[in-house]
């Protein structure tokens, strides 16, 4: 186990900075998720840690030792699980798992023992003689994890390991993954574009956009207290509502942000609650079982055209009709203010 | 002009005749039609001569006479007891196996080089493919000079480098002559094999190679335990083609040594040509030529089975 430290890392592909000045410290034993849209540089960052990409500038330290210059992947003490799992198709499950041990010249007896132990941990002991093509997606994913963890890496790198599983399997796989990681306690860096995975798995989440880390924090922190409008709208489903203020209440160029689940009928809030009210013209109601999504506009604002979303849980039974206007409100504690040009949060 | 009553149903409301399918819609017919020229070509230029060769091998036909008498297995018995034939058969095997072994090693190495990107790669790839485009006879003449008893560049180079003290008579000594044939045959198949192996190499998912790298495999382990096994189906196809090309080739030996010295470098095609055409014994020539067929058939079946058994991963 070890910490990973990334200092001002930059990587250029052609004329594009895929990673553009990232500073990040991943603590010993931590599960850190790199979250961002495709092309934000998260995979490049992960591959740089693995040693599959050579950074253009900056430093990477694993366990306090500098690795970015000429330490090859096999000497970095890392293991990686790829999105496609990248199992060796011509080798049995046993041989797949044994491969890193053989490459490390482990004694023969040791290999057998370790492979069987690891296969037991991941519940794949019954498949050791099979070939990857004979396994289901979930089983392949476990073999890949098993192969990664069998030689006790200091750092485990995961590149969208759940992306190829169907939705139902993804839930259980997520739960298992978190359990394994807690059990083994290996420092883990996990790349995904799926915010549910990120929020559910990460001790901390680093949200990336255009090669930069926009915010690093616990899932709760990045959700409730976003540092800028990118984080605010990227995390959360549906995304945070952003309203351009021009009533002279705040400084010019202020965006007011509030989450759809805080945007509720005024009557639902306690009368004493300090809240900001809006007239909400509901255009469409989307019934989703556990929630209702209301799409509509705020006709009293200076720019009445943008669509706002309110998310009403099933516990709020207030009848809402399409085409009608209602008084909705947001508790003041749930309001965020952003600078409209820089997108940065205005605090205080 | 009479105006139609509005109540009249418009003409289009009647069930109109649907357009008939054209020839292009009839896959089975069109397919047969388009295949026909190729089939005719194969039948006329390969099939009939092939059957003729089999028939000739059981006859006592000679060039310059129209007699076509049944000879039974006499031709086969004659060649089997002929040391020149046995030598030619052995040479064919040695040349084929030797050149293919050389080709596998060289093509795998070259494919590794051409996978990397380097300045001048396109030019290098063009140069690589040249031997494939050069007519055999022309190439063999160039090689004849390379192996020349007086001017051999190999000898002079070795001499200049101080590695050679005697003199190598490349085409004058049976073993060296056979080695020369192997080298030229390998040189001829090499570009084709490289292109095939390169294609196979690029079809291996990048993530698998990266996984091997991260798993701690160095270059050799990755090559021998991941890349080569995954390349096996493709390589066996390259070897199969190479085997057929080499075993049936007449040109290289014919131009380079003419089967000499003292019939020691004949391969089956050159011997068949010498006996059947130059020696006018069509029956025996055909028997020699046909002798290759079962051998190549077995090789082909084994190779294709190997390729099928090792085809993994890609579904």
TrEMBL record, chain A:
Entry's Gene Ontology cellular component terms: ATP-binding cassette (ABC) transporter complex, substrate-binding subunit-containing
Q: Which SUPFAM superfamilies does this entry report, sorted A to Z? A: MOP-like, P-loop containing nucleoside triphosphate hydrolases
UniProt name for this protein: ABC transporter ATP-binding protein
Alphabetic keyword roster: ATP-binding, Cell membrane, Membrane, Nucleotide-binding, Translocase, Transport
Q: Tell me what organism the protein belongs to.
A: Eiseniibacteriota bacterium
Q: Ranges for the ABC transporter domain?
A: 4-235
Q: Does the keyword Transport apply?
A: yes
Q: Superkingdom of the source?
A: Bacteria
Q: Which GO terms describe its biological process?
A: carbohydrate transport
MF GO annotations: ABC-type transporter activity; ATP binding; ATP hydrolysis activity
InterPro entries, A to Z: AAA+_ATPase, ABC_transporter-like_ATP-bd, ABC_transporter-like_CS, ABC_transpr_MalK-like, ABC_transpr_MalK/UgpC-like, Mo/tungstate-bd_C_term_dom, NA-bd_OB-fold, P-loop_NTPase
Q: Name one Pfam family in it.
A: ABC_tran
Q: Would the keyword Membrane turn up in this protein's UniProt record?
A: yes
């Amino acid at each position: 186990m070890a910490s990973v430290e990334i200092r001002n890392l930059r990587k250029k592909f052609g004329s594009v900075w895929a990673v553009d000045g990232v500073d990040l410290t991943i603590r010993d034993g931590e599960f850190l998720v790199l979250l961002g849209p495709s092309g934000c540089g998260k995979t490049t960052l992960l591959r740089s840690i693995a040693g599959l990409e050579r950074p253009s500038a900056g430093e990477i330290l694993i366990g306090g030792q500098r690795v970015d210059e000429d330490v090859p992947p096999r000497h970095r003490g890392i293991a990686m699980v790829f999105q496609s799992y990248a199992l060796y198709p011509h080798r049995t499950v046993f041989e797949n798992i044994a491969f890193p041990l053989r490459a490390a010249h482990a004694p023969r007896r040791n290999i057998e023992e370790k492979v069987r132990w690891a296969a037991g941990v991941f519940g794949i002991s019954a498949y050791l003689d099979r070939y990857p093509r004979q396994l289901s997606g979930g089983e392949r994913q476990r073999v890949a994890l098993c192969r990664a963890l069998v030689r006790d890496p200091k750092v485990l790198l995961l590149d969208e390991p759940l992306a190829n599983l169907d939705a139902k399997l993804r839930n259980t796989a997520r739960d298992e993954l978190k359990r394994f990681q807690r059990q083994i306690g290996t420092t883990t860096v996990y790349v995904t574009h799926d915010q549910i995975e990120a929020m559910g798995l990460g001790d901390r989440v680093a949200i990336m956009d255009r090669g930069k880390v926009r915010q690093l924090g616990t899932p709760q922190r990045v959700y409730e207290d976003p540092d800028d409008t990118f984080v605010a709208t990227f995390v959360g489903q549906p995304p945070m509502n952003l309203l351009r203020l021009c009533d002279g209440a705040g400084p010019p160029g202020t965006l007011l942000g509030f989450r759809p689940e805080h945007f509720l009928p005024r009557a639902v809030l306690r009368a004493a609650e300090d809240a900001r009210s809006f007239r909400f013209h509901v255009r469409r109601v989307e019934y989703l079982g556990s929630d209702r999504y209301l799409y509509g506009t705020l006709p009293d604002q200076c720019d009445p055209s943008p669509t706002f979303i309110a998310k009403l849980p099933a516990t709020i039974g207030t009848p809402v009709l399409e085409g009608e206007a209602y008084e909705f409100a947001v508790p003041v504690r749930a309001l965020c203010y952003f600078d409209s040009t820089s997108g940065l949060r205005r605090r205080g | 002009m009479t105006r139609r009553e509005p109540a009249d149903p418009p003409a289009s409301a009647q069930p109109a005749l649907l357009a008939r399918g054209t020839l292009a819609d009839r896959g089975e017919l069109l397919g047969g039609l388009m295949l026909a020229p190729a089939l005719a070509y194969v039948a006329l230029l390969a099939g009939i001569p092939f059957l003729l060769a089999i028939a000739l091998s059981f006859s006592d036909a000679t060039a310059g006479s129209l007699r076509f008498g049944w000879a039974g297995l006499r031709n086969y018995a004659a060649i089997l007891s002929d040391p020149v034939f046995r030598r030619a058969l052995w040479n064919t095997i040695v040349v084929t196996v030797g050149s293919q072994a050389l080709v596998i090693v060289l093509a795998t190495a070259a494919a590794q080089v051409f996978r990397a990107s380097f300045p001048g790669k396109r030019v290098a790839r063009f140069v690589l493919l040249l031997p494939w485009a050069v007519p055999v006879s022309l190439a063999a003449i160039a090689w004849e000079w390379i192996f020349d008893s007086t001017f051999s560049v190999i000898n002079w180079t070795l001499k200049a480098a101080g590695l050679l003290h005697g003199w190598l008579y490349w085409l004058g000594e049976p073993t060296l002559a056979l080695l020369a044939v192997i080298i030229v045959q390998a040189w001829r198949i090499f570009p084709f094999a490289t292109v095939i192996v390169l294609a196979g190499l690029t079809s291996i998912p990048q993530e698998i190679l990266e996984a091997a790298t991260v798993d701690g495999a160095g270059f050799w382990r990755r090559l021998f335990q991941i890349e080569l096994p995954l390349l096996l189906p493709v390589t066996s196809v390259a070897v199969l083609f190479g085997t057929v090309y080499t075993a049936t080739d007449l040109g290289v030996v014919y131009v380079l040594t003419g089967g000499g010295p003292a019939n020691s470098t004949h391969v089956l095609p050159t011997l068949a040509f010498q006996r059947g055409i130059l020696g006018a014994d069509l029956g025996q020539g055909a028997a020699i030529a046909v002798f290759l067929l079962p051998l190549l058939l077995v090789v082909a079946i084994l190779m294709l089975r190997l390729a099928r058994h090792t085809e993994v991963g890609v579904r």
